[in-house]
Amino acid sequence: MAITRNVADITTRIGDFLTGAHGDRSGALSVLNDILGPLPAPEHPSMLENRAEAVGLLPVIHAWQIHDKSPPTDEETIHTLFHPAELARFSTQTGLSELAAMNILREMLPTAVRHRAVTAQASRAAPPVQ
């Protein structure tokens, strides 16, 4: 079994390398935003904020919202904040292997959380359209 798993892992890595999957961000942000749902608001925390609060990771989310250049998060945090079906959906809809999807999520999530917070704040501060 270990040999089969190693061959599958090597094959996946080769496929990801040949297709440039580790660097591919096209569509990934759209899928991530779709999974994350509505933008956060003071009276309506985001799905991610609710999940983070339930497991004691809300300070991490708040740090991402505040800091412009947060480092990538770890795989454990991704698995804690997302359901397996959401991770599979991200992988499927982006066309990335699970490994490439995880690597991109680790890099993208802190930045996406920051951008979503800034966008939400700007939309609340904008004058109403007449």
What features would you highlight for this structure?
69% helix, 7 helices, mainly alpha, 130 residues, DUF2267 domain-containing protein, YidB-like
Fold topology:
Blueprint: H1 2-19, H2 28-36, H3 47-54, H4 58-66, H5 75-81, H6 84-94, H7 98-125
Helix pairs in contact: 2-6, 2-7, 3-4, 4-7, 6-7
Organism: Komagataeibacter medellinensis
Protein name: DUF2267 domain-containing protein
How would you describe what is shown here?
This protein has 130 residues and is mainly alpha-helical. Helices cover 69% and strands 0% of the residues. The chain is built from seven helices and no strands. It has helices at 2-19, 28-36, 47-54, 58-66, 75-81, 84-94, 98-125. Helix 2 (28-36) crosses helix 7, helix 3 crosses helix 4 and helix 4 (58-66) packs across helix 7 (98-125). The N and C termini lie far apart (64 Å).
Class derived from helix and strand content: mainly alpha
Radius of gyration: 17 Å
User: What fraction strand?
Assistant: under 5%
Number of helices, where a helix is a run of at least 4 consecutive DSSP H or I residues: 7
What overall form do the CA principal axes indicate?
globular
User: What is the arithmetic mean of pLDDT?
Assistant: 83
Unreliable residue runs: 5-24
Distance between the termini: 64 Å
Q: Tell me roughly what share of residues is in helical segments.
A: 55-70%
Biggest sheet character: none
Series of H and E elements: HHHHHHH
The count of strands amounts to 0
